[in-house]
Every structure is written in C-alpha cells, then in structure tokens.
Amino acid sequence: MGLLLTDDEKMLQESAAGFFADKAPVSQLRTLRDERDATGYAQELWADMAEMGFTGVLVSEENGGFDMGFMAAGLIAEQMGRNLSASPFLSSSVLAVTALNAVGDEQAAKMLPEIVSGNMTVALAVDEGSKHNPDAIEMSASPSGNGFKLNGNKAMVVDGHMADQIVVAAQAADGLTLFVVPADAKGLDTQRTIMVDSRNAARMVFENVEVTGEQVLGEVGKGETILSAAFNAGRAILAAEMLGATSHVFEDTNEYLKERKQFGKIIGEFQALQHRLAHLYCEIELARTAVLSALTALDNNPKSAGSFVSMAKAKLGSVAKLAALEAVQLHGGMGMTDELDIGLYLKRIRVAQELFGDADFHMAQLTK
C-alpha cells in the first residue's frame, strides 16, 4: 500500500510481491479452474506460505506466530489480489485466527500453532441465506447431556470443503454461541460449491451433530463479540485484496491504452479516455486510504474499528467493480474474451464484493 509503512512492513510488502508473482500467478488460478482441482488451491503454495511466515502474521509469538498485525495481513492480501492467488489465508489465517485470538483459551492455544505451521485449516460457518446477514442465524444448539446438538444449514462457508475444523455459529438458549466442530463430525454433510471466480465455498447441513462443552469457543451466549472481531478482520483483508486486484487492473489497462492504435493514433492520446483513467486513478487512491485507515484502526483500537472497516469494504466494493468494468470496456472486444485475464479479475471482485457484506450492507452499518 505504500503509505506510512514501517521498515518491516515495507520488507514484507516486497517479499510478498515477489513470492506471489512467482509462486501463485494468475496462470495458477487458470490451471486450478481448468482442471477443476478438488482442493481449489495449490496445497504446495499453502505449505510455502507457512514457511514464509505468512500464515502467522496475526498470531502471537507465544503461539508460534510473528504478531505483525493487520497491516501486515493486508499487505499480504493485497499481493494475493494482484495475482488472484487462491489459498485458505482469509478463512484460516484471518477469520479463524482472529476468532481464536479473541478467546485466548486452551483450545486456541492448541489450534493456533497448527494453523501457523500450515497443518490445519479452519473455516467459519455463519451465513445461512443467499446474502450476508449475521443477525439472521437460526441454527440451533440444544442441550444434550454435557454438551449440545447442532441442527441447521450453513451457506457460503469459504474453503469449508477442505477445512479440518469448522467454527460454527448457532443459537443456544443463552444466545449466540460459537463451536469448533471437526470436519468429519457425524451428522455433518458438506457439499463443495465452485463459485463464479473459480474459488470454493461450501454448503453444510448439520443434523444432530454432537458437541461437548469443551468445543464451545469462548463462553456460551458470548459469540457475538468474537464473531464481530472476526468479521471486521475478514472485511478489511478482503478490502485489501480487492485493492490489489483493482490496482493491477488499472495498471494493465493503462499500459494497453499506451500501445493500442486506432485511426493511426495511440488510443491513450484521446482525451476522453484520459479523463476516464484519471477519474479511476483518483478513486483508487481514495480507496487505498480507506483500506489503510481500516487496517490501522484494527491494529490500534479494534473495538472501535467497525466504521473504518465498513467504509473500506463499501468503498472498495464500488471502486473495484468500476475498475474492472472500465478495463473490460477499454480493452474493447478483447476484454470479453477468456484470453485476457481481466474477466478473471472481474469475477473475483464480484465475489469479494458480496462476501461478508456488499456496499449497501456496509453503508447501512455506517448510518446506524
């Protein structure tokens, strides 16, 4: 992102830029898509990310991580966005880690080192409908012996089909509660969903899934605070990823306008096109500031970061869409073909827009 970064963050940014351009370029996503890879991401990439320390940027040194904070996680996500690199980083290293950090109990101490090492992936199962709405959770957690029985459905569980553990939100008698459920739990049926961006989510059906009291994440009825922290983290990191994708699309389009000729002239010389690129550049810089503000707020005062995060997610959702659509149009007929990468960026941006709340959802949060 380039603004107000420490020397360590600048080094991380450069390291991540080189790593993802080399290890996980857009061509890797094409291969995963065309081969309909069962995992949905390159498992060797995830191992390499763990070796680089990317999986542990939000984990304390006590639990095997590097404790670099959300700005660092955002810098990694930005480079993933530039290359459309697919991995469980968002689901495991951001959402799950943030939820576990918010609890800090014995269960978290066992799981966090496993996530850092790359040996465990964790998915967050919250939404149940077609749109993001964490206030509409209906899955029930009814008392059963010394534990609970979970019943209900979950949708859009990012990377859920390959996760080792699932953090599940359900309604107990005392209120919203989070549970850690093994992916192979009896009564849990998981169906993979390949999204339009060639990434993976899952639909899950819980039928009398037995969980013990030890599988409660935090305290019974206290899940809302944990969930809020996890979603704020995920939304900010998604905004950073969209910023990376948007920046790449803009740069690619700008270079194309400098080379493409029409009527004997470089089309970038046409003033109308220059105005469109100048407008888009200004919008991207505003979006960059929004992302930087959200990540800084999460690092400095996470309890009051919600408005900054919603602003960033809403702004990036609209700006990223604008950038992708402008890129398609300014590339002319070629912009509609699969030969160019622009369509892949547009698809990822549209999915990222919707995940954890679109622009309308977050504008509503800001007006509350």
Structure explained in plain terms:
It contains eleven helices and ten strands. It is of the alpha+beta class and 368 residues long. The strands form three sheets. Strands 1-4-5-8 form a four-stranded mixed β-sheet. A hairpin with a 2-residue loop joins strand 9 (261-262) and strand 10 (265-266). The longest helix has 37 residues, at 223-259. It starts with 6 loop residues before the first helix and ends with a helix.
Short description:
With 368 residues, this protein is an alpha+beta fold. It is built from 11 helices and 10 strands. The protein has 3 domains: 7-120, Butyryl-Coa Dehydrogenase, subunit A, domain 1, CATH 1.10.540.10; 124-222, Butyryl-CoA Dehydrogenase, subunit A, domain 2 (Beta Barrel); 224-366, Butyryl-CoA Dehydrogenase, subunit A, domain 3.
Along the chain, the helix and strand elements come as: HHHHHHEEEEEEEEHEEHHHH
What count of structural domains? 3
* Major β-sheet strand ordering: 1-4-5-8
Level-1 CATH class name of the largest domain:
Mainly Alpha
